[in-house]
User: Which sequence fits this backbone?
């Protein structure tokens, strides 16, 4: 499988989205919370509280939508500043009530538009990076599809970052890279190769801790095994003193 | 997919903030050696010596020409007080990106610097500070791992020695040629800013033309006080990327320093000729009264 095949697979319309993961892992226990308390509720970001093996967790996901209508409602998973601010609000809430945070990442990038700029897209992402670094509760980020640059990182300053086998994580889209490099956006395949954006590449670079195998029949085993893995990880991380946890997180990113 | 939905897809498909790299190189000439310089805004011819004396600000219309990092340091810190840190650090082609070595080599030649940022300690108006100045002549100030490392070290040094940090930003964003590791610099630098901030120390950013992408979405927007030079272009996405995404022309002065001031994202627009005094004053307002014994500890 080439890097470009990976890009195509990561973007495939029939891939499970954050909503699917939330439903299959947390079932009816998920209670959605809306809004950033400043401007609006961004539907590209879904967030709330759920139970995992009887313990509360904060769940946040970048949501692309599963059909055209949903995708338009959710702006194809590209969040505005209010989406990142909603995520941060929920993370701060998680810290206050001592529950861990799980983020599902699936976005081609933070939205580039007039409103996004007017309301400080850069500032919103920057604030998340800063605040997540010292959030005194465990954070786990799982890349389930596309991980587009700063808009993905804003939910991935975590204690551990995992990727689905066919997910991607990149500083720039292969199309963007190709058009800058070769002034030819059709050379996406070459660019995909150069950027080292596959789960395998990123594991080798030490950017992620775990690759989640994708069974041929995604629906069957993936969610159960993921549920157990998440629960185990939170149990381990919750045993670490918050100050130590923050120190480990700082060092995780300090090494790059 | 029919043409309508295809159109819709294209219309809504967001572009990555990095996709504006190289967008800013053209219309902002550096001052060449010639005697007469034509101002790109008021079109008046200005004597280059007058321009230099005026900190590269057009004496006729106030247009701020871009300034290389060394000159910026010269016009900002007290004479002879700058002491560079990590000046010998060099970028390498960590992910085997095509032609990156060649790009680095030509960036070094054209800028006369090793990287897109210069860091060090200095006095500003008699006050000690750590200063970092980015350089648009080095790959449009893009942030690679060495850029991020130098900035992180500067913050760690400042935290350890209880010093304020001043950063002049100019950047097209993260450096594509270092792949995901350039993106990680956003998190790394933000972490260092946070620890410096939690230690109760002052951080001032000065945004200069242009500041975009991964730098805007990390340390540029994390200052306690955020200043900007007049008319600097500041944004997350570059204007061309936004226009391609939304398929319409952007209003005039969109993403200018003055626009950001109005929207509440920067504290003040400060002309270059007043920058040093402004910084000195702000640092003084935050200077700690440390006794001699405490200093020794």
Assistant:
């Amino acid at each position: 499988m080439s890097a470009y095949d990976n890009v195509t697979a990561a973007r495939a319309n029939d891939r499970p989205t954050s909503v699917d993961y939330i439903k299959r892992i947390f079932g009816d226990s998920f209670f959605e919370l809306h809004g950033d308390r400043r401007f609006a509720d961004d539907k590209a970001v879904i967030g709330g509280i759920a139970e995992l093996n009887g313990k509360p967790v904060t769940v946040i996901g970048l949501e692309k939508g599963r059909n055209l209508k949903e995708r338009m409602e959710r702006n194809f998973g590209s969040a505005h500043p209010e989406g990142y601010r909603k995520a941060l609000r929920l993370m701060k809430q998680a810290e206050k009530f001592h529950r861990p945070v799980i983020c599902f990442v699936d976005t081609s990038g933070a939205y580039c538009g007039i409103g996004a700029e007017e309301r400080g897209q850069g500032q919103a992402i920057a604030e998340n990076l800063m605040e997540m670094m010292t959030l005194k509760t465990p954070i786990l980020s799982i890349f389930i599809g596309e991980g587009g640059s700063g808009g993905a990182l804003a939910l991935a300053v975590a204690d551990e970052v995992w990727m689905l086998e066919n997910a991607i994580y990149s500083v720039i889209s292969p199309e963007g890279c190709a058009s800058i490099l070769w002034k030819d956006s059709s050379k996406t395949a070459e660019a995909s190769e150069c950027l080292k954006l596959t789960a395998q590449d990123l594991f080798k670079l030490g950017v992620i801790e775990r690759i989640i195998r994708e069974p041929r029949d995604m629906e069957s085993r993936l969610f159960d095994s993921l549920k157990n893995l998440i629960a185990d990880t939170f149990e381990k991380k919750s045993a670490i003193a918050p100050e130590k946890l923050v120190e480990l997180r700082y060092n995780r990113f300090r090494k790059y | 997919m029919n043409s309508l939905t295809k159109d819709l897809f294209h219309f809504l498909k967001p572009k990555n903030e990095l996709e504006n790299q190289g967008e800013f190189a053209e219309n902002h000439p550096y001052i060449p050696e010639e005697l007469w310089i034509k101002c790109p805004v008021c079109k008046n011819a200005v004597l280059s010596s007058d321009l230099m004396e005026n900190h590269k600000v057009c004496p006729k219309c106030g247009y701020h020409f871009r300034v290389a990092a060394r000159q910026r340091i010269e016009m900002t810190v007290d004479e002879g007080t700058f002491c560079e840190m990590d000046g010998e650090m060099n970028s390498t082609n960590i992910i085997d990106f095509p032609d990156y070595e060649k790009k680095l080599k030509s960036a070094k030649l054209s800028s006369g610097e090793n990287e897109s940022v210069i860091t060090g300690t200095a006095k500003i108006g008699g006050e000690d500070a750590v200063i970092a100045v980015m350089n648009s002549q080095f790959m449009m100030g893009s942030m690679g791992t060495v850029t991020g490392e130098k900035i992180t070290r500067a913050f760690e040094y400042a935290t350890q020695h209880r010093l304020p940090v001043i950063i002049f930003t100019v950047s097209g964003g993260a450096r594509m040629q270092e792949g995901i590791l350039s993106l990680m610099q956003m998190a790394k630098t933000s972490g260092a800013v946070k620890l410096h901030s939690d230690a109760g120390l002052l951080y001032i950013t000065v945004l200069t033309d242009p500041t975009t992408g991964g730098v805007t979405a990390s340390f540029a927007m994390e200052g306690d006080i955020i200043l900007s030079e007049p008319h600097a272009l500041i944004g997350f996405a570059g204007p061309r990327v936004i226009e391609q995404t939304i398929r319409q022309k952007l209003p005039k002065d969109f993403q200018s320093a003055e626009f950001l001031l109005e929207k509440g994202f920067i504290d003040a627009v400060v002309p270059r000729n007043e920058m040093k005094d402004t910084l000195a004053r702000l640092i003084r307002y935050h200077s700690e009264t440390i006794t001699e014994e405490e200093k020794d500890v």
